[in-house]
Amino acid sequence: MKLLTLNTHSLEEPDYAKKTEKFIEMLEKEQPDIIALQEVNQTIRENEIPDIMLDGYIRCGTFNRPVRQDNHARYVVEELRKRNVYYYWTWTSAKIGYGKYDEGMALLSKKPIKRAQEFLISKGDDYENWKTRKTLGIQVEGCKDWFFTVHMGWWNDEEEPFTDQWKCMSHTFDDSMYQEGSIWLMGDFNSQADVRGEGYDLIRNAGWKDTYLLADEKDSGITVAEEIDGWRKEDKRSGVYKNEKRLDYIFVNKPECVKSSKVICNGDHYPVVSDHYGVEITV
């Protein structure tokens, strides 16, 4: 099984069309079984598309916002279909991003999606507040595991601290529906692996396994190499201006045999397509 996660920075990313084409070319070659994407945007004022016209789409929740014409996940899935690469997919929006997007997250699966779940992890659910956070998960046909795409807040945020969001999410997994198989958390955790006593340590101390550490083969693990949105204030607070960070992870709650973990779309393994690099593991 091959899993991939990427914070896409979609629509807002410079040279978006060119970089998205490179991303699609990478997916055509790699064809991960599960793809977890964050910052999957669509323009608020674009035309809606009825669900019935969206190939492979599974709506998560009755009242979720409609998919619109320039939805990033929709575009990626449809372009892959033109290349005879087929994915089932789901998407949810958590908030308004950059004042003009429905900003959300998506999961793509080679197998049909059996169940899709979303839940709020932030204390607030104001759609116009950029700090509102959701998590989206799927279970696919023939597999007991759950796969979640995750985009966390920051450790020291006074309104929406990382600790509260993690507590909300981890309590949700106490439900019996998640207990049969493994739970995979894939995404941008906004927490540095080399900073002690904060988000990364909180997750690992709760018993979750970092698949980067489990992997027989691995690289540097660095997923951010430059100053990015959201981290300027954090870097100033800490007084440590370190551009290279490992912020994107794939965690699992049970021991798994991980063959490899590699950073992808970083200029070495495929072209850069976002302000984050991706992580791909083979289990």
Overall description:
The protein is an alpha+beta fold and 283 residues long. It has a single domain (2-282), classed as Endonuclease/exonuclease/phosphatase (Deoxyribonuclease I, Chain A, 4-Layer Sandwich), CATH 3.60.10. 19% of the residues lie in helices and 29% in strands. The protein is built from 6 helices and 13 strands. The strands form 2 sheets. It has a 7-stranded mixed sheet with strand order 3-4-2-1-13-12-10. A 6-stranded mixed sheet has the order 5-6-7-8-11-9. Residues 234-241 have low confidence and may be disordered.
Number of domains: 1
Instruction: Please work out how many helical segments DSSP would assign.
Output: 6
Oligomer: single chain
- What pattern of helices and strands is seen along the backbone? EHEHEEEEEHEHEHEHEEE
Identify the CATH homologous superfamily.
Endonuclease/exonuclease/phosphatase
How much of the sequence lies in strands comes to 25-35%
Residue share in helix: 10-25%
Structural class: alpha+beta
For the terminal residues, how far apart are their CA atoms?
A: 5 Å
* Strand order of the biggest β-sheet: 3-4-2-1-13-12-10
Q: What topology emerges from the helices and strands here?
A:
Elements (H helix, E strand, L loop, with lengths): L1 E6 L8 H15 L3 E10 L28 H10 L6 E10 L3 E9 L3 E8 L13 E7 L5 E6 L10 H11 L10 E6 L10 H7 L3 E2 H4 L2 E2 L13 H7 L9 E5 L7 E5 L13 E5 L1
Parallel strand pairs: 1-2, 7-8, 10-12
Antiparallel strand pairs: 1-13, 2-4, 3-4, 5-6, 6-7, 8-11, 9-11, 12-13
